[in-house]
Amino acid sequence: MRRGARMLMALIALGALPGLRVHATDRAGHWQEMSWPFPRDGWPAGRAFRCTAGGCDGVELYVRAKRGFCNCDTGVADDDEVDRVTDIDLISPRFTPVAPGEAVSVAAMQGRIRHYDLDMPDGARHAAAGLALSRRCDLLVAVAQGAGEANAAQRAALVLLETEEMKQWMAAALDGR
Fold first, then answer.
1. What's the CA gap between 17 and 12, in Å, rounded?
2. Where do the structural domains in the chain lie, given as residue ranges?
């Protein structure tokens, strides 16, 4: 019994048993924080990240809190609200939703996520996933965008947002700290 337990511990430590040892950064890619790239507006600046490796190369993620900006009773109710609040227009004023959004849950908050095509100022086309989450009367918004496919950017961004560090930061931002 002891020998079997030691072997199991060794396999887990070496990462030989998939699923038993998971690092969110490995699944999400490797993200480097950068300066908030947008001009000042009525909301506090958030956090911005660029994925530098791990299958989401070049994807950028922008996350910020908008306190007191959500319908306290219904939260994020529909796709029009996602279009309006997610800051997608800060990246490019020429954005087009590609499909209806879907319900999503991140860090114990509920909301919606929707995919977009972006016509960038330099003429390039990018894909984006816009996310709006509510907590009581407050809103947390995020946009992941890049030259690749929106689903890949979305997956990597959602894994990053579920890390303990990001959950703590989101809670503090929504609490005004």
1. 6
2. 29-174
* Single pTM value for the model: 0.82
- Give the fold, CATH level 3, of 29-174: Protein Transport Mog1p; Chain A (3.40.1000)
CA angle (51, 37, 111) in 5-degree steps: 70
Mean pLDDT, the chain, whole residue set: 84
84: its two tokens: 């309006």
C-alpha span between 172 and 100 (Å, rounded): 31
Q: For residue range 82-133, what is the model confidence (pLDDT) as tens digits?
A: 999 999 999 999 999 999 999 999 998 999 999 999 999 999 999 999 999 9
Q: Does residue 32 surpass a pLDDT of 50?
A: yes
**Distances in whole angstroms, Cα of residue 35 to Cα of each of 32, 125, 143, 146:** 10, 23, 15, 17
Place of tokens 């016509």: 119
Residue with tokens 């918004």: 141
Total Cβ atoms within 10 A of residue 161: 23
Quickly state the pLDDT bin for 73 (edges 50, 70, 90).
confident
